[in-house]
Structures
1.
Amino acid sequence: MNYIIGLTTFIFFGSIFSMQKDTGWNPLTYTTKFLAESLLELKSEEKTKQFLVKVPVSYANMRENVAVEPHHFSRNFFERFSQQHVRLLKEIIKVHGWPNFDEQSAFGAWYIAQQATEDPEFQEQALLHLDEILKNPTECEKIYLRTQFAYLYDLVRINNGKEQFYGTACDEHGFIKPIEGYLPHKGGCTEILEPINERRAQMGLS
């Protein structure tokens, strides 16, 4: 039931973010008032897919709201938003496993994990899920999941004080963070060192 209520809550988020600028409503304050009428429907794979597909837009809307009207939000509001998505994804995994229903669903799940900087342990768990699927992927899964794996793998390595492996992570100034086996590189993220092109290509990275 917690999974169902949580999923309903976050589907509702998308509908009220657009009202934020006009009303000044705080989404996290009002969610309990707007639960969907048919909670049982949210157990379905289709409803879960619909939620995951909307995840990137929900995060973008939240960032916009925080940036445009910071006086309506506490300083840790986005972190709380991310934490609740992580809790929801954990519940989804309990019911469906890693929600690799299709490319868009998988991207939504990966996006939540990639943004979960406040929960590095969950990021490692998500990486293990991707690694398990990639041991025997379909041709379609191989195309999109390996790229998601590369980004999350680099992030997990950095979280653990190691150098990244695929060159996917940049610092706040747009410079590539240190890459395992290569001297520090001061170019932008699009100026990848030639020696790692092969390892990047293996993961579908240009």
2.
Amino acid sequence: MVLVKSALARKNADEMVQISKLVESSMALNTHFADPSPPLARITAKREALELAKPLAANGDRVAVAKRNTLAHELSQLLVAECRYVNSASNGDRDVALTSGFVAAKTPTPTPLVAPPFNVVALPTTKGGEALVRFQTHRGSRTKQIFITTGDPATGPEWKLAALTTKNRCIIAGLDPEQYYWFRVNVICTAGVSGYSIPAQCRVAA
């Protein structure tokens, strides 16, 4: 689980040094992170080397600038690796992760459950023993489940799964001619399974 982030994107050398110092001081002797990986000593050594390289690059010397940039990149990689360690060692506890000095990662917004399908219509086809069920669904709907019964929905009959489809229409075959059937539909989405639609009835052709 991503609880904290390194937040190093587009940070310059000065900002990276300050972030590193905060992480180093926050994690030193922190009992929540008894075995940092990479070791804090490696991060401290790289940060101190970057601090020494910064003034040498201030006059624009290409070699000095290249060295500063290389050290900044290497420090960034160490901090990213340390952030991964913190996320792993925190065992899902955001408060523990935040004691590391890294900033909180954005909490994912839960995906809402999709509402039931609507405008369900059941019609006999020109073939005997078939019914066409069509309906509309909301955004986020994936697989649609069509259920069937011969009982009155108001009396709580047993519903059986008749078909699975990714489309908004489906032909149900193998039905008894001239029999009345009720159909209802729900959808499977990222958040789970929706409620059922309002049932629709049709009489199958002979």
